[in-house]
Design goal:
Layout: E1 15-19, H1 23-34, E2 38-43, H2 49-57, E3 61-64, H3 69-72, E4 77-80, H4 89-96, E5 101-102, H5 104-109, E6 115-120, H6 125-138, E7 143-147, H7 153-159, E8 164-168, H8 171-175, E9 184-187, H9 202-210, E10 221-225, H10 229-237, E11 243-248, E12 256-260, E13 263-268, E14 271-276, H11 285-300, H12 305-314, E15 323-328, E16 331-335, H13 342-350, E17 356-360, H14 373-379, E18 380-386, H15 391-397, E19 403-407, H16 410-420, E20 426-429, H17 442-454
Parallel strand pairs: 1-2, 1-4, 2-3, 4-5, 6-8, 6-9, 7-8, 9-10, 10-11, 11-12, 16-20, 17-18, 17-20, 18-19
Antiparallel strand pairs: 12-13, 13-14, 15-16
GO molecular function, one term: UDP-N-acetylmuramoylalanine-D-glutamate ligase activity
Domain Mur ligase central: 119-298
Binding site for ATP: 121-127
Length: 456
């Protein structure tokens, strides 16, 4: 399949202001400087030492711990880092003056003719992105991986010349697109998440995810979970131009992917790939779906079937996503710190095959815990709360399990779990919440868990 042809005008004369001096901000600054923009990076917080050094190396003007509004309002174009809300006062001010505010993904896509694969969803997008990249790389393609994972897309466009990019895209990144058009879009699933950023309106969040299809044409493809009621409902009510390729665990699919009689079957026009599901290295129904999505992308890009099968059999998964850490006294410790919402934790609990001591908690994003009640009743013997405010968890599960313990540190949580777990049990860290009350991010939380387990 040939590289995507871009018709984006590469307007490189002008002043680009960048809000946020992290990975996406500094990556955009490097690309913009290379393309002839006058660049100014502004961050309300402190800019990390590594990023400061990069800005200095490329002679890019920057400021930290403030936004010089008068200067920023002179910009021809503004790139906003995904962590900054759409309705931040400065963003509203810029838009009020007619200054376009875009995402790094939108900016970087203007300077590459590579074929773009965009992957979004509430859960599974990191695994699916890494899975897809793994297969395409094994298939001999010159492929980069960016977005929410690894180095920024903009920095890679500035410094490498990949023919394909696999991009993990959050709803925040998609909110800032205008012309961005992935040739292949994947939506893994849509469940309530980040509703604090969408005025607690689920429909707004759904629309944000579907922005990935906004500029697609009849020549493009949308791969999606046909078992997801939210996706199915939206597609019935709205028209998209791209060709639909669903995947399903529940029904047979004529063009797309499904599982029947413990076999994965992917059909694209007259080409069919089959593979026993027992050969998949990653366990769980959700990972079977991730594998179907990634393999469908690979089929579209004409990767050899044998390469796809081998890749699906060898892929090792993602750190902090149902990651087996250690077995101590015949108790398995599992790190699922990346489960920052209820749906991700649902998948984790569903895949547990033994009595489970569940470590849960953090910053609640307006979670609806009722979806977990049946699984908690079936599988969880004790709950360890790990957060500053555990009230929502205590209220939701107080009547489900006999033992609920509150903790304020990972070390304490793991020690409590060690006391409560018996031979044959599992200790599962799957927080269903953001991490910012006690940890820097979910990676920090997961690494502290692994360290605490190793210190037992």
């Amino acid at each position: 399949m040939k590289k995507k042809e871009t018709n984006n005008a590469k307007n490189t004369s002008g002043f680009l202001a960048i809000l946020g001096g992290g990975e996406s901000g500094v990556g955009t600054a490097i690309l913009a400087k290379k393309e002839g923009y006058r660049v100014f990076v502004s961050d309300l917080g402190k800019i990390g030492e590594a990023y400061r050094q990069l800005l200095e190396k490329h002679a890019i003007e920057w400021e930290e711990e403030k936004h010089s509004e008068e200067k920023i309002l002179q910009a021809d174009l503004v790139m906003k880092s995904p962590g900054i809300p759409e309705d931040a006062p400065l963003v509203n001010l810029l838009r009020g003056k007619g200054i376009p505010v875009i995402s790094e993904i939108e900016f970087a896509a203007r300077f590459t003719d590579a074929l773009l694969i965009g992957i979004t969803g509430s859960n599974g997008k990191t695994t699916t992105t890494k899975f897809t990249h793994f297969i395409l790389k094994n298939g001999g393609l010159n492929v980069g991986m960016a977005g929410n994972v690894g180095q920024s897309f903009a920095k890679q466009v500035a410094e490498t010349d990949a023919d394909h990019y696999v991009l993990e895209l959050s709803s925040f990144q998609l909110d800032g697109i205008i012309d961005f058009r992935p040739h292949i879009a994947v939506i893994t699933n849509i469940t309530p998440d980040h509703l604090d950023r969408y005025r607690h309106n689920f429909e707004e969040y759904i629309a944000s995810k579907f922005r990935i299809t906004k500029n697609q044409t009849e020549e493009d493809f949308l791969i999606y979970d046909a078992d997801d009621p939210v996706i199915e409902r939206w597609l019935k009510k709205n028209t998209i131009r791209s060709r639909k390729l669903p995947f399903s665990l529940q029904k047979e699919i004529e063009n797309g992917a499904f599982i029947k009689d413990e076999k994965m079957i992917i059909t694209l026009d007259n080409s069919q790939l089959t593979m026993p599901t027992s050969n998949l290295t990653l366990e769980g129904k959700h990972n079977a779906k991730n594998a179907m999505a990634a393999a469908t992308v690979a089929q579209l890009l004409r990767i050899r079937k044998e390469t796809i099968r081998e890749s699906l059999s060898n892929f090792q998964g993602v750190e902090h996503r149902l990651e087996k850490v250690l077995k101590i006294n015949n108790v398995q410790y599992i790190n699922d710190s990346k489960a920052t919402n209820v749906n991700a934790t649902y998948y984790a609990l569903e895949s547990m095959e033994s009595e489970t001591v569940w470590i849960v908690g953090g910053v609640d994003k307006g979670n609806e815990y009722s979806d977990l009640l049946q699984l908690v009743n079936e599988k969880v013997k004790a709950i360890i709360c790990l957060g500053v405010d555990n009230t929502p968890i205590l209220e939701a599960f107080g009547n489900c399990v006999d033992t609920i313990v509150e903790t304020r540190s990972m070390e304490d949580a793991v020690k409590q779990a060690y006391k409560l777990a018996e031979r044959g049990d599992t200790v599962l860290l799957s927080p269903a919440c953001a991490s910012f009350d006690l940890f820097k991010n979910y990676e920090d939380r997961g690494r502290q868990f692994k360290e605490a387990v190793r210190n037992l």
